[in-house]
Amino acid sequence: MTPKEKEDLLRFAVNLARKAGTITLDYYGKITDVDWKEDLSPVTKADKEAEKWMRGRIRETFPDHGIIGEEFGTENPGSPVQWILDPIDGTRSFIHRIPLYTTLIGITVENRPEIGVIYAPVTDELCEAATGLGAKYNGRECRAGSAKDLSSATLLSTDITTIRQEGLFEPFSELLDRVRLHRTWGDAYGHMMVAAGRADIMFDPVLNIWDAAALMPVLQESGGLFLDFRGEASINSGHGFSSSRHLAGEVLDVMARYQRNKL
After folding, report:
1. pLDDT > 80? residue 263
2. Sheet architecture: strand order including 81-89
3. Which domains does the chain carry?
4. With CB atoms 3.0 to 4.6 Å apart as the test, which of 8, 58, 145, 156 could cross-link to 200 if both were Cys?
5. What residues pair up with 103 in beta bridges, in sequence order?
6. pLDDT given at position 66
7. CA distance 242 to 109
8. What does pTM read for this prediction?
9. pLDDT band at 65; cut points 50, 70, 90
10. Where are the alpha helices (DSSP H) in 155-244?
């Protein structure tokens, strides 16, 4: 894929995320009915409507491309180009009128994450990236944080309960003891804050492919890293963290002391 083709796909993805985010805003603060999936995660009409709209636009414009979405599964799985969609990442935040949910779009080419868009509709914050083309936060170049060690770092997570349920509370507790500050600006919003240089580590014990696909290009192009807890750059591991390059080794050293067979 040429840089021009990549830039064109990125521009389309940015516009797609903004419009899908606008669809979710039509429901923000108005949701009364919530359905619960088999994994006990919530889904709303807003999730479904936003993903349906994105799928329709992708089919019209790129009929040969594949689509993987949280709400409606997989289309055209044999295509070398896959659009990976999460219409509302942070549905619990959305339901409770917390403005930190995001719309996520990742694009893989031959299974390589190449393009990522993270959009927070309520706060109108958007982080975009394509491999080799850099990363931008609200239209300006962004760089991951410059903290050199854990003692000066800001650590983010979504919630402690999930970390405990996944058997990762021991390493996370060590990180808590060693960092300067911890906050729960969670889900993909936290990863965007790392890419924007406003936080230093985002710890995520549970990630589906639609949660992770947008994150890797954004973090890598902002000068940071998105890795699983084994240190692999993967969007399929089911867990991971974002950080500056300075801190990744320290985080992985902590994780290695508490390795679980599941990782």
Report:
1. no
2. 73-75, 66-69, 81-89, 102-109, 112-120, 125-130, 134-137, 140-141
3. 3-141 (3.30.540.10), 150-257 (3.40.190.80)
4. 145
5. 119
6. 98
7. 22
8. 0.95
9. very high
10. 160-165, 169-178, 187-195, 209-212, 215-221
